[in-house]
Design the sequence.
């Protein structure tokens, strides 16, 4: 569970507020923190923000914003999760009888940042709109149509003149791979841009903040006043929707003829993959709600793109895995050593697409296809020996890292080297030939630096005319799938092929030993079972009065053995539960009387030998009790309890009561012998049986060698973070009209130990739950929209159920006098706050 922010709006009822000026002219921004104040108004800010700085110093928050707005914002703060969490609220009246604002909330250091801009009059259903847009994306099949449709949909949503899907390369440069543009404008599709156009710092920021808008590149931003807090730190506006951008970037856009821009990040596996880059030739501002829809569409496109790429990767990996398996099977079946890899050159080339293959084993060279010469390959292996020999080495430009490689780029420009021995001497190398290609740049990427208003290094380029460059000396790049496939091949060759003979011999020897052990164990168990059954039959026959009695007795005892055998074999001949053994025997033999067998004790596991012995003992005890003892009438009860003594022996007590008077048997049958002698004889334990007038008493002791602790019956899910000490139990009622906050409260209460959490969004529903199933305690949100929870509190007070109030109104909430003293917690609250509040409620 995410810990609530260290700073919350509740402190502003007693501390000075801090107002930060607008950074873009279409909104304003407040930074609320308990130890510093800044203020600056913008053209679109309300009148109260336009006052002099001195008029706002030291004012409480409810003197600046409407109390209902504060309550709403506090509730949304409760939903922020994670370090870069941002929440948005639309059409909020920050001041009563004034136009509404769209508000964005996030945490920046020790401050809560509240950004607001005038609410647009449009009624936009972002979820439904994006759902329809995504459905169109899902109808596309291939990658290029997917990107084109995404650009078209984004342009329709935002209304910008140009929308581009811009993909980053591993070196930081970018390419426009899809575009939707208004007629009459130049097209940028296929153009490449150097990494310097979007610096590394900006790309890192795009990974944190999905959305960035510049409504007017010529509009001056409003400075933050003061620039630093009392600790000397500036306010971090990385997640701000209103912050301005670098003047270098603004000049860059002006040089492109762009008057307004909007950027939406495209992430893959949490890293920046590309951008939706939106340009407009005139200043353009779209509402926060529409921008939120664009951000949501960008996120959905990111997930669809990632899913499509994974599908392609899965197909490629499946094909490579199939070829890889066939290759390994063929090599293993023939007992091929490393030197025999050359016989499988065609299969190896099919695993990773290449133009040539080189193999270096113990100084011997094997080359196939388009490759360097033997002498060049020898120099290349020496270079590889200086690299990390424990991993695959891939490059699409050998000459860049190995200078002699420039001499054979036409034959081998790229390589994928797989080390196939633990020492750096043997390699399997895939080669690719040079692929000369023309790259069209949006301006010369190697432009010289020029002196400008921002200095020599930081001046953006002014020319964006197409500049073509012929790239030579490089092959097609190696994909991540190909590198992973080569790594899998490396592991296989190292761990399987190189030790094929020893591994196969060891496996054959171990298999033979396992088979002999299995046969011996099976033979031993079969003999024991046959001997046991023969003994049961023989002893039962000598004490049977008739053939029918003999059949019945033998059948019931063999059934008891069968049930015990089923339990131990269900766990691969492992230990069985004592509790399950007794319950199974009671249910199987006694039927409706089984509930008169009372068990107590911590469950233990019995080893198979002890389990079978005790199964016969319990069976005989149940049988005798049902025929002659406590279970032969309607009132008797059997109590079975067990514990571990000081020497860790298992001690089992059998007590019968409520049945007819008991007398010792006049003759000793096989059943009596089983009860009294099987545990001492078979397990070297103890057995004591007393025939008391009030009922049979027996005590059995099983040595610790046959007993194990049983695992817990229920496994609770692991908490995502260490839970606070358990203070609560039973059912807690949460009365809250905000579903997200109610779910958050449920998580906190469950972590504190509550068995169940019931939620109600209205007074009527809460009263219904109380009458149906009264809770053990309750958390009541004071304000439930058009009503309050006071009526619920009165009903809880009548029933004597402890409760606490939760409120976003701070100190202004007054408890009705008839309720007396009731703990009140402020939103956003956390686990410790709730725990202490309930402790206080219990003492009231």
Sequence:
């Amino acid at each position: 569970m995410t810990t609530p922010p260290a700073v919350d709006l509740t402190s502003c009822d007693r501390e000075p507020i801090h107002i930060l000026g607008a950074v873009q002219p279409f909104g304003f921004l407040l930074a609320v923190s308990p130890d510093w104040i800044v203020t600056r108004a913008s053209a679109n800010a309300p009148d109260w923000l336009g006052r002099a700085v001195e008029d706002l110093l030291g004012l409480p928050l409810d003197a600046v914003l409407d109390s209902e707005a504060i309550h709403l914002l506090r509730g949304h703060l409760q939903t922020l999760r994670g370090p870069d969490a941002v929440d948005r609220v639309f059409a909020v009246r920050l001041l009563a009888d004034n136009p509404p604002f769209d508000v964005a909330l996030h945490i920046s250091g020790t401050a809560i940042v509240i950004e607001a801009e005038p609410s647009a009059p449009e009624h936009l259903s972002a979820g439904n709109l994006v759902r329809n847009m995504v459905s169109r994306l899902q109808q596309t099949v291939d990658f290029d149509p997917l990107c084109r449709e995404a650009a078209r949909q984004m342009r329709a949503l935002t209304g910008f003149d140009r929308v581009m899907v811009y993909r980053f390369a591993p070196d930081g440069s970018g390419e426009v791979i899809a575009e939707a543009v208004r007629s009459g404008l130049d097209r940028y599709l296929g153009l490449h841009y150097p990494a310097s156009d979007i610096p590394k710092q900006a790309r890192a920021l795009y990974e944190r903040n999905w959305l960035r808008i510049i409504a007017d590149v010529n509009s001056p931003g409003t400075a933050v006043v003061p620039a630093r807090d009392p600790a000397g730190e500036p306010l971090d506006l990385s997640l701000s929707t209103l912050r301005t951008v670098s003047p270098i970037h603004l000049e860059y856009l002006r040089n492109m003829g762009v008057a307004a821009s909007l950027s939406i990040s495209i992430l893959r596996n949490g890293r920046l993959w590309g951008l939706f880059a939106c340009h407009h030739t005139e200043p353009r501002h779209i509402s926060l709600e529409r921008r939120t829809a664009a951000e949501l569409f960008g996120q959905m496109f990111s997930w669809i793109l990632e899913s499509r790429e994974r599908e392609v990767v899965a197909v490629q990996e499946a094909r490579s895995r199939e070829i890889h398996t066939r290759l390994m099977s063929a090599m293993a079946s023939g007992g091929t050593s490393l030197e025999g890899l050359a016989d499988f050159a065609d299969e190896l080339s099919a695993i990773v697409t290449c133009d040539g293959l080189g193999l270096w084993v113990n100084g011997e060279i094997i080359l196939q296809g388009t490759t360097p010469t033997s002498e060049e390959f020898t120099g290349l292996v020496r270079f590889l020996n200086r690299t990390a020999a424990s991993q695959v080495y891939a490059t699409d430009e050998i000459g860049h890292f190995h200078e002699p490689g420039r001499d054979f780029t036409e034959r081998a420009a790229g390589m994928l080297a797989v080390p196939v021995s633990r020492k750096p001497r043997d390699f399997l190398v895939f080669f690719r030939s040079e692929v000369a290609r023309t790259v069209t740049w949006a301006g010369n990427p190697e432009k010289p630096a020029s002196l400008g208003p921002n200095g020599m290094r930081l001046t953006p380029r002014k020319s964006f005319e197409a500049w073509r460059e012929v790239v030579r000396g490089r092959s097609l790049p190696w994909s991540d799938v190909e590198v992973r496939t080569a790594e899998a091949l490396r592991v296989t060759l190292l761990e399987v092929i190189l030790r094929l003979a020893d591994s196969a011999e060891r496996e054959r020897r171990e298999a033979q030993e396992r088979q002999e052990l299995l046969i011996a164990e099976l033979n031993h168990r079969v003999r024991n079972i046959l001997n046991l059954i023969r003994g049961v039959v023989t002893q039962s026959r000598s004490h049977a009065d008739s053939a029918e009695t003999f059949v019945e007795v033998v059948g019931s005892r063999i059934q008891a053995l069968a049930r015990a055998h089923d339990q131990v074999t269900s766990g691969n001949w492992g230990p069985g539960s004592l509790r399950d053994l007794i319950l199974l025997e009671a249910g199987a033999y006694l039927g409706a009387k089984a509930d008169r067998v009372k068990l107590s004790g911590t469950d233990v596991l019995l080893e198979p030998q002890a389990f079978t012995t005790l199964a016969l003992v319990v069976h005989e005890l149940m049988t005798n009790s049902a025929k002659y003892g406590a279970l032969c009438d309607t009132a008797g009860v059997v109590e079975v309890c067990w514990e571990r003594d000081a020497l860790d022996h298992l001690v089992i007590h059998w007590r019968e009561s409520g049945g007819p008077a008991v007398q010792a048997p006049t003759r000793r049958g096989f059943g009596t012998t089983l009860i009294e002698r099987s545990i001492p004889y078979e397990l070297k334990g103890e057995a004591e049986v007393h025939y008391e007038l009030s009922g049979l008493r027996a005590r059995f002791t099983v040595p610790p060698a046959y007993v194990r602790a049983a695992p817990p019956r229920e496994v609770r899910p692991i908490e995502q973070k260490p839970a606070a000490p358990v203070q609560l139990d039973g059912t807690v009622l949460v009365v809250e009209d905000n579903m997200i906050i109610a779910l958050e409260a449920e998580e906190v209460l469950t972590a504190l130990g509550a068995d169940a959490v019931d939620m109600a969004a209205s007074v009527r529903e809460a009263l219904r739950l109380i009458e149906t199933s009264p809770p053990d305690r309750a958390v009541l949100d004071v304000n439930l929209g058009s009503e309050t929870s006071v009526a619920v509190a009165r009903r809880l007070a009548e029933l004597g159920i402890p409760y606490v109030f939760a409120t976003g109104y701070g100190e202004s909430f007054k408890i009705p006098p008839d309720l007396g003293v009731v703990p009140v917690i402020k939103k956003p609250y956390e686990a410790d706050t709730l725990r202490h509040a309930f402790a206080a409620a219990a003492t009231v």
Q: What stands out?
A: The mean pLDDT is 76. The radius of gyration is 39 Å. The chain has 20 helices and 30 strands.
